[in-house]
Structure formats: C-alpha cells, structure tokens
C-alpha cells in the first residue's frame, strides 16, 4: 500500500521541496498543508489522485483536526508526519519582543506538538509511523541574536527525544532534522529582525542587518536537503538525529564535545550533591 506523507508548511522552502519529492514518487500519497491553498498551485502538475491539499495554520487546533480528518478520509493512513512549518527571529535576548517570542514558540513548538498529538492515535493503531521534526543546527549549538529561536528548537529536541522513548515499542520512529543555513524564506519573509539599538550589542548589528542575504547565499540547498530527508525516512535504520551541512555537523560537534568535557571536568562536584 502507498505510504501517506503529511507535511506542514508546504508553501515554500524545505516543505515545498519535500512535497515535490513525495508528489513525484509513484509509491506515496501526499497531504500538503499550507496556510493558503493558492500557494500549492505548483502541485497541480503531479498526479491529483495521490495528492490532498489542506489548509493548516499550525496555531489553529481546529484546522489541524480538520486537516488530519480529511487526510484519513482520503487515504486511510498517515505513515509519515513532517512537522516542518516554522519561523525565525533575529534579535539580542535583551531587545527581543516577548510577544514575538510567544508567537514563534506557538508555531515552532506548540504547533508541532498539536500536529503530533492529532496524528499519534492513527500511528499507534497502525503500530507504525515516522515523525520528522524540523529542528535546526541552532539546537546543537548557538549564536548571538538567535537565542529565542534556539530556545524553540532546543525545545523541539527535548520533545523529540522524549517522544522517541515513549513510542519506541509502538513501531513509531522520531527523527529530528538539524539543517544548517539553507536558501529558503526562513531568513527572509519568515523571520522578524531587530537590529540592536543598544550600543553594547553593536558588534551584532551587521549579522542581523544582513540576515536576509541567506535567502540567496546560504550554503544549504533545499532540494538536496529534501531528498536526504525523504531517503532517510525510508532507510532501514531511521536516524534519531540528522544534522545537515557543515555548521550543523562541525559546529554542533564542537559545542557538544565542549559540553561533555566541561561536565566531565567537574565530576566530583556534580556527584557531591547526592546522599
Ligand atoms: N532555512 C534554514 O536555514 C533553516 C535551517 C534550520 C532549520 N530550519 C527550519 O526549517 C523549517 C522550514 O523552514 P524553511 O527554511 O523552509 O523556511 P520557509 O521557506 O520560510 O518556509 C517556512 C514554512 O512554514 C510556514 N509557516 C510559517 N508559519 C506558519 C504557521 N503559523 N502555520 C503553518 N505554516 C506556517 C510558511 O508558510 P507561509 O508561506 O504561509 O508563511 C512556510 O511554508 C522551519 O521549521 C525552520 O525553522 C530552516
């Protein structure tokens, strides 16, 4: 039976490229979710018998429930859920707007959690499924002005690591994908930017002011990233973590190795607080 993929945020970037890979594949059904159906016209050149378009703003629980119900009515199963919808925020911690942070958390974390909750009963009943959560290289390491974005993606990592343990015996796999900067709208229209006004943070002004350049100049190729995600979701051993690109791999490892050596350097102190 054809596997059904359900992908959020398919209007652009990774979601669009992955939806295209799934739509081209003869052995898969696609449920493409987006906030505006007109953004999904690019799917019209593929086999309509295997594609369902649904409107989902991931901050809207009613739309999530309706979208999942429509997918099940059409294809009966959901085999792969890709929690891709997300946005960014570039600002120093001190100058960040907390309403913007709350909204980003609603999209990047609570939206992902509500989508997952809506799909889990189906995957549990099937005793099979793959949940792919778009995390970030910035959940393996951090950079100035990306603090609140990293906070949402570190949340996605902790959530994914726990979920993986809870569903391990139910045939459900959980993969966190950690891409480096890639040429999508994430650093363009999907991000808010606050160039530091406080002089003490002036060193970070250029990196915020120039961030939109990543839309065309970031090293990551969204088409290659989408293909790797698709291939790994179909691999016999599905990775728990999938860092993609140099910054995620080398930058992530450098940070994690530093963390391990810092923890080990105070072993006696750490162990001194237990009876
Ligand atoms: N590109 C990178 O450098 C990079 C690196 C690491 C991780 N990521 C992550 O990868 C994921 C995809 O981003 P992208 O790089 O492909 O950027 P993108 O081109 O901006 O795509 C983001 C997608 O999320 C959707 N979206 C935003 N808010 C939404 C909401 N409330 N409800 C439903 N959909 C919503 C957007 O829809 P609209 O078109 O309607 O706004 C768009 O389809 C995100 O989770 C991002 O954090 C990106």
From TrEMBL:
One Pfam family per UniProt: adh_short
Keyword set, alphabetical order: Oxidoreductase
GO molecular function, a single term: oxidoreductase activity
SUPFAM superfamilies to which the protein is assigned, alphabetical: NAD(P)-binding Rossmann-fold domains
PROSITE patterns: ADH_SHORT
Family: Belongs to the short-chain dehydrogenases/reductases (SDR) family.
PANTHER family registered for this protein in UniProt: SHORT CHAIN DEHYDROGENASE, SHORT-CHAIN DEHYDROGENASE_REDUCTASE FAMILY PROTEIN
Name of this chain's protein: SDR family NAD(P)-dependent oxidoreductase
């Amino acid at each position: 039976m054809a596997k059904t993929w359900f992908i959020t945020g398919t209007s652009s970037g990774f979601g669009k490229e992955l939806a295209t890979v799934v739509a081209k594949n003869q052995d898969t059904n696609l449920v493409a979710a987006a906030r505006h159906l007109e953004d999904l016209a690019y799917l019209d050149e593929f086999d309509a018998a295997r594609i369902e378009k649904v409107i989902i703003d991931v901050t809207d629980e009613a739309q999530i429930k309706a979208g999942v119900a429509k997918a099940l009515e059409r294809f009966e199963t959901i085999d792969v859920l890709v929690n891709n919808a997300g946005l960014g925020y570039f600002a120093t911690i001190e100058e960040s707007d907390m309403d913007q942070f709350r909204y980003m958390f609603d999209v990047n974390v609570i939206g992902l959690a509500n989508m997952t909750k809506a799909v889990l009963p189906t995957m549990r009943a099937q005793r099979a499924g793959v949940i792919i959560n778009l995390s970030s290289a910035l959940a393996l390491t951090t950079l100035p002005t990306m603090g609140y974005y990293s906070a949402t993606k570190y949340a996605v990592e902790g959530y994914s690591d726990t979920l993986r343990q809870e569903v391990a015996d139910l045939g459900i796999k959980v993969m966190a994908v950690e891409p480096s900067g890639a040429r999508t709208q994430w650093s363009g229209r999907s991000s808010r930017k606050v160039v530091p006004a406080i002089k003490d943070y002036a060193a970070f002004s250029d990196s915020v002011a120039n961030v939109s350049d990543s839309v065309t100049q970031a090293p990551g190729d969204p088409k290659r990233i989408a293909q790797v995600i698709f291939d790994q979701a179909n691999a016999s051993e599905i990775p728990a973590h999938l860092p993609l690109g140099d910054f995620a791999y080398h930058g992530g490892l450098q940070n994690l190795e530093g963390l391990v050596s810092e923890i080990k350097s105070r072993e006696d102190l750490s162990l001194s607080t237990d009876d």
